[in-house]
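Table S2 (text version). Query chain:
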Amino acid sequence: MSTKQTKEKASKPAAEKAKPQAVKTTTTTNKIATLGPVTDLGKHVSKEWWKKIFDAYYLKTDGDVVNDPKITEAEISLFMGILNLPKESRILDLCCGQGRHTMEMARRGYVNTFGLDQSHYLIQHAKETQRKLGLNPRFQKGDARKLPYPVDFFDQVMIMGNSFGYFETETDDKKVLKEVIRVLKPGAKLLLDLADGEFLKTSFQARSWEWIDKQYFVVRERSLSPDGRLLSREIITDVYKGVVDDRFYGERLYTKESITKLLVDAGFTNVEFHGGMKTDSQRNQDLGMMERRFIITAVVDKAWTPVKAKKGEVAEKHVVVVFGDPKYKDPVKPGAAFDKDDFNTINSLKKGLADIAGYKFSYMNHHDSLFHDLEKLKDSIQLVFNLCDEGY
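Corresponding structure-token output:
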């Protein structure tokens, strides 16, 4: 500043110096760049799209299902009615999301529940909810193709809420199933809650939009890809800020025939379908992949993995317990069928056997494959405890 300018500034009246200055204001938004019209959704679906979209917006767009406790309670009641698991069973909720099913099982007294998901955001959300509710599930971030659990560890693995078929290739889906087999005990089960691919191929909505709440709405576009995936686009808009996300993803559609083949090829047996499941939500608008699903169980067909005893320890003896098959009529039972008392007795027996040191127990009740299953385990079992009264 020159000397002249300094003098002129010093000679200005004090009142003029104090004159308030205009304040510039700016308005910021969280708008993002959108692609506008897209003719080929597949070009915009990244190979690992599932690493990015399971976030806070996911809990909004899918919140009418995944945040509704009544839906979760009804689903767990249905699944546990099919499985009839003892409360001490070690259960893995694979691809657990924010842990809604895991925590509902824990709330019902299942004391050994585990949840694993690849989304850091959803796992942290699950842990925070767990602490607030005072429940005991163990949550962990991880990849379903490489599970961080030991061999022969779980009594049950459950993949619920249409959380299967996210990978780009069917080969990766098979890797998930192979890992499930590795961590399940021999004779244990996988439960799959999966979108009905045959229905969706002909019934998906190519375009839709719905209000999520009073602030957000979502526009969706869908198309089928040549490799059998349902490709989707979601444009999420905040009424105050504009478009806040424009996301693309693809999910493989399985029919009953194709998922059965994949399960058998991976090493499962006794694949069973337990009817369909139709979801109703409070918004009752676009349910997408959650609209119609089917429930599948499959049995692990493998032997126990040999475990060498440490020096000074005695190796556990492996005992196979044979039960009656609930699928068949039994004339010695009331009504010629298994009832609630029978299942309670079986669960009490399993609980008692679990407390016997030096032994590990596995259980068989599928009579159609009984001899085949025993033959496969003959080199790893020391005893057969036969409680079946149907002539075996």
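Notes on Table S2: The domain at 41-300 is CATH 3.40.50.150 (Rossmann fold). The chain is about 30% helix and 25% strand.
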